[in-house]
Amino acid sequence: MQIGLAAEDGAAGTERRKHQQHVGAAGRADKRNHGSAKRERNGDRHDPAFVQKAADNKSACDAPRLHEVEEQYRKGPFAGRKNIAVTAICGQVEAELAELKPEEAKEYLSSYGLTDSGLERLISATYSLLGLMSFLTAGETEVRAWTIPMNSTAVKAAGAIHSDFEKKFIRAEVVNWKSLIDLHGYPGVKEKGLLRLEGKEYIVKDGDVLVIRHG
Q1: Are the C-beta atoms of 147 and 171 separated by less than 8 Å?
Q2: Which of 111, 129, 147 is a domain's end point?
Q3: Residue (of 186, 210, 187) closest to 200 by Cα position
Q4: Which residue has the higher pLDDT, 166 or 45?
Q5: Owning domain of residue 124
Q6: Which residue, 129, 150, 178, sits at the end of a domain?
Q7: Confidence label for 8 from pLDDT (cuts 50, 70 and 90)
Q8: CA angle, 59 as apex, 58 and 60 as ends, to 5°?
Q9: What is residue 63's predicted lDDT score, i.e. its pLDDT?
Q10: What was the pLDDT predicted at 198?
């Protein structure tokens, strides 16, 4: 089990060196675990039986306790320290997830009582420390995430896409990503009245899907 520490404080150089050492160690551990997992596999990794077999092999690390371990570090060694986030990661679990289809990965995580992978939790913690968030744009052929500072206005979000969008901003059509998926696209959210028009000063929320109207 690896403890991922993302930090940004006064001793930036020291923390950066420690973080680099940790990342290197974690990378080596993941490679070893990945190779071991491949050697232990029997049959097709996409066979449903494989998912159950992998879920039963919990000896590599105590994955169900990852959140508990995180709390122990938050309240223990890192208690009271500013600008620190803790993410516990099991290299064996991450190696297995990398080889599974999305629906199989979800089932595999569920077998450990987890909802998100270690990578997803590490990204979330890092974004939070850096004061960043994402909004989305969605067309017929492409969905894209854009990174902006938290509490950014709609006009600044438009500028992240293209400077002309910021200069010629008129309005933004806004809907939450989950509503867009649950209602099967824009016709569904329009029918339910969930698509909003917002002006320049609207504070974009994490997970908002924007359509920028510009001149």
Answers
A1: no
A2: 129
A3: 210
A4: 166
A5: 2-129
A6: 129
A7: very low
A8: 95
A9: 83
A10: 97
- Look at 19-23, 30-34, 99-103 and tell me which has the smallest mean pLDDT: 19-23
pLDDT of 60 reads: 52
Q: Which amino acid is at 70?
A: E
Residues 141, 178, single domain; the answer is: yes
List the CATH number of the domain containing 151: 3.10.20.30
Long-range own/partner contacts, residues 105-108 (CB < 8 A, 24 or more apart): 107/51, 107/55, 108/51, 108/54, 108/55
**Residue 181 pLDDT > 90:** yes
Instruction: Kindly state whether residues 106 and 151 are assigned to the same domain.
Output: no
The span from the CA of 206 to the CA of 135, in Å, is 6
Crossing angle of helices 48-56 and 102-111, in 10° steps, is 30
51 vs 4, more confident: 4
Mean pLDDT of 163-168: 96
108 and 62 assigned to the same domain: yes
Q: Look at residues 88, 117, 87, 91 and name the one whose alpha carbon lies nearest to residue 104.
A: 117
pLDDT-wise least confident of 35-44, 127-136, 160-169, 182-191: 35-44
Indicate the number of domains in the chain: 2
Under a CB-based contact definition with an 8 Å cutoff, are residues 116 and 109 in contact?
Answer: yes
CB atoms under 10 Å from CB of 37, counted, come to 20
Alpha-carbon gap, residue 171 to 214, rounded angstroms: 7
